[in-house]
Amino acid sequence: MEEFENKFSEVAALLGDKSRAIMLWCLLDGRAYTAMELSVCADISAQSASNHLKKLLEANILYVEKQGRHRYYRFTSSEVAQVIESMAGLVSLNNDYKRVKGPKQSDITYARTCYDHLAGEIGVKITDALLDIGVVEVIEKSYIVTPVGKDWFKDIGVNVNEVMLQKRSFAHPCLDWSERRHHLAGALGASFLTSLLQNDWIRRKKDSREVTVTSRGKSEFKKRLNIDI
Fold first, then answer.
1. Are 15 and 23 in contact (CB under 8 A)?
2. Residue 12 sits in the same domain as residue 49
3. Which residue did the predictor score with more confidence, 147 or 177?
4. Start-end of H helices in the chain
5. Does residue 85 register a pLDDT over 90?
6. Residue 149: domain span
7. Using CA of residue 48, residue 55, residue 85, residue 184, what is the dihedral sign?
8. How far apart, in whole angstroms, are the C-alpha atoms of residue 32 and residue 200?
9. Candidate from 10-14, 16-20, 99-103, 187-191 with smallest mean pLDDT
10. Are 110 and 103 in contact (CB under 8 A)?
């Protein structure tokens, strides 16, 4: 037990450093970054960034992939990324914070990616709609796809049976830090996001985790989920 407590303390200390926290937040857009890019993100020297990244690698929070002369860093798994994103839920939102009421696509609280799935007000709204029309159901803190849901996902290019074969959590609720409600995560959430991007329902904003909903996307969400975005 003492050994576990010591290791937990070490991980907590790693995540508590401001520069490392900024780099981890940057990596939540799901893309891999070089040490230089992360140093710019955290506004620290390249040498300092390398030292921080070495500690995160040793803790198995990140892994590095070599490609040519470059080394790219990313989270070791979607589960690790989920923990990092969930930590934002501990941040107290004071009276200065105003929940977004309409399509304010420049605001990260409205529509963003949470590592490999959709989050923000849009992510929560879409998840609620999937539940309302019976595409997915909640059973024992996990989502299952109904028979009707399999056809629904197939129509937009997601093969649920193939997604279920992936060696990771299939579909689970992820607590949205800005909405304080759940959005769809797991392998299904990742495949759903990929489909939305490929179908041009949403688009990534350059150098940001924010996404924008296209005119086509607004029309499709209204037709298929009966929601206005």
1. no
2. yes
3. 147
4. 2-16, 18-27, 35-42, 46-58, 78-87, 120-132, 147-155, 160-164, 186-198, 215-225
5. no
6. 85-225
7. positive
8. 23
9. 99-103
10. yes
pLDDT band at residue 104 using 50, 70 and 90 as cut-offs = very low
CB neighbours of residue 198 within 10 Å: 10
Boundary residue ending a domain (76, 98, 120): 76
Q: Which is more confidently placed, 159 or 72?
A: 159
Q: Let me know whether 71 and 131 are in one domain.
A: no
Residues 6+ apart with CB under 8 A from 64: 53, 57, 71, 72, 73
Do 16 and 120 lie in one domain? The reply is no
Closest CA to 27 of 67, 62, 51: 62
Whether residue 135 is found in the same domain as residue 218: yes
